[in-house]
């Protein structure tokens, strides 16, 4: 294929239509996307990146790391970055059926046309999603099959790399699929990689030569340059120039990059997210993120406040979240939170925090959470007894847990989510039952404050590399027994909802997460057997069958069953010397230098068995873990600034002084955005304008905004209406200008006029609707002559009918019918396929229909049904456009407020 064709955009309109669920996922038109002349910029870029998130769009677009790295790369001169996400099964099937490649969402160019394709690997079972994307992109899934052509050669596949916590922790099970792995933080590492690739690309270096150059970049691991040692476990360099161990990278958080993109559809975390602290030094012995992100680095309070304030102004979000592994350990949190609440006091916004330390939860933190809407609270006691919490170094006492819950209830919270784990080292049945005992005690000891409702998530402990518990062994059957033991105990309690994680997938996570290069065939076979989207509940049965079948086919079934049935207390039963020798054995990830001393991890395991608590080195003495130094840096803990006096929160202004009626058009790709997403888009645009919009009252205040008669998904509208109310008299022309500036292409404001503030609602003013739409016979076989149809005769018979009965079901599935003939005012032929041939198999029509008081009217698909019946052929409705919504006489505006 010629180079120009290989890099040409896909036929997006042919691929993405109403046959694809949530088609707006693939538009790539979010607020914040940099406008580009793709033809020019593509040719001018020294390196073309595509950062892909191997999950559906709603998950990937919510990932702050994905967006931060995308924003940073696009700020580097000479480098260009686009994005891609795992297509939903329906689009994946269509791509395969039509032989079309997976594409990046902004340029719509095939992923294979880029120079570097990066995947976020954040979950042990996420490798199957990556293989799915590689195959859909037409890229060989194994690095060894990608040849040695220079990157600039038109037939050279892109460099494929992975980053993220799972890739950094133990890349070996996935090594066969990637050209290189980016270890640790990527904010500084990825631009460095881009510079090396740009130079190599310009110099015409072969792929192998380029990978050798990349291996010299700190934080880059090139699996092809390493191989198993004599013991079959250790990974050693195959060439003398590459380092024996590859150290992960650390970077200073950059909160201002977090406001990069605002999706036009609802995502999993539909809010502004700003990082306040990276890394955690609490030392929880089960926690891989806490071990792999050391040292702890606080963000300057002023930078956090500025990032949130500017981010809310630029994005229009109504919610923001402060992000950290342990927000409560950010000592400036009370001061920052109160300052933000004060500055945003009249903007109807809410603050949420991820899971936080219950022992640091006080009235200051309780005050800053929530806002216009009080969110939920999440704490993670992890274990049900003090003894087991000491073993895992949680550093939480029963008294601190009770105090935190009481503080939450005194602040108005009645529902709290608690995370617990079962299967932790040293756990006994008494510890498992201690979870139920803890919940019972909390409810009883908080009874004087009201009814406490608890939502519990019970996870299965999975040992992770680079933690003191990486040598632990767990048992699937024992998990099942302990889950049942806890279920029985919790049934006796009221006001508690419990969710248990699937023990089968936990075992597979462990098998992959602590595996080696022998697992690459397992991952590939599991994917080919149907594994994918494994984190989704509805995929559990299919995924488990695919994974276990792949493990058996690879001849590793015995090893997997040994892990499943592993001696529950093997490590605990060892003598100290035997345990030390056991911990010195090589592990598949020993060549990944996380900064943690392996001997320190073994010593900490000994301390765990003695239930010895190690204090947090951010606030007390150094624990000598080995991380802090010139390469990875040191803990940065900012002393808490004074907490400013709290400004009373003000309800958003709800005065109704002026109402505007605005005509608008919704065309092009915006037709693929749903009505609810349109309302969300308009609300955020209004926030960005700073106009004095009037809000409703109540628990969840919303702008007084009404859009007339929702457009069906995929339908354009060129004569739509919305009403908007303000707290003061406004100039319609000014409102139209300022709001238009905040709207995406495809949403055009056509007019703005004043209407009576307390007059009839917009829905009451609707009278008639005009539609243009095309109908095509689906009975004609492809390649045959068009079918001859009497369109005009069918239209005349429809207009002459006494009744047009439409049968469907209500929301409860009950059958109903309605005579729609009174709604049909006129129906006429606009044109047919070709030169006004009224017997062709395709026609374009216009319908004029009334709108009743309940907002019901005719739809083109209903007319397609009735006309098809008259013509005796099935008809497909296409190119629908609601040309106008007509209001009652004289109610389009132009009256004083």
Detailed description of the structure:
By secondary structure, the chain is α/β, with parallel strands linked by helices. The protein is 31% helix and 19% strand. Strands 21, 22, 23, 24, 25, 28, 29 and 30 form an eight-stranded mixed β-sheet that branches. The chain is globular.
List keywords for this structure.
897 residues, alpha/beta, eight-stranded mixed β-sheet, six-stranded mixed β-sheet, 29 helices, 30 strands, 19% strand, disordered C terminus
Mean pLDDT: 91
Over the alpha carbons, how many angstroms does the gyration radius reach? 31 Å
Strand content: 15-25%
The rounded distance between the terminal residues' Cα atoms is 64 Å
Q: Show unreliable segments.
A: 893-897
- Let me know the number of strands: 30
Total helical segments? 29
Give the % helix. 25-40%
Task: Briefly summarize what is shown.
The protein is an alpha/beta fold.
What layout of secondary structure does this protein have?
Blueprint: H1 3-6, H2 12-15, H3 38-44, E1 47-53, H4 57-60, H5 64-74, E2 79-85, H6 89-98, E3 116-120, H7 127-136, E4 159-163, H8 165-169, E5 180-182, H9 189-203, H10 207-214, E6 220-221, E7 226-228, E8 235-237, E9 246-247, E10 272-275, E11 277-278, H11 288-292, E12 297-298, H12 301-315, E13 319-323, H13 333-343, E14 350-352, H14 363-368, E15 370-371, E16 377-382, H15 386-391, H16 398-410, E17 415-422, H17 429-445, E18 453-460, H18 476-490, E19 496-500, H19 503-513, H20 520-528, H21 540-553, H22 557-564, H23 576-583, E20 592-593, H24 598-609, E21 658-666, H25 675-689, E22 705-707, E23 716-726, H26 732-740, E24 747-755, H27 762-765, E25 766-777, H28 791-800, E26 805-809, E27 815-819, E28 824-832, E29 842-850, H29 860-871, E30 875-887
Parallel strand pairs: 1-2, 1-3, 3-4, 4-5, 9-20, 10-13, 13-14, 16-17, 17-18, 18-19, 23-30
Antiparallel strand pairs: 5-6, 7-8, 11-12, 14-15, 21-23, 21-24, 22-23, 25-29, 25-30, 26-27, 28-29
Helix pairs in contact: 7-20, 9-10, 12-13, 12-25, 17-18, 20-21, 23-24, 28-29
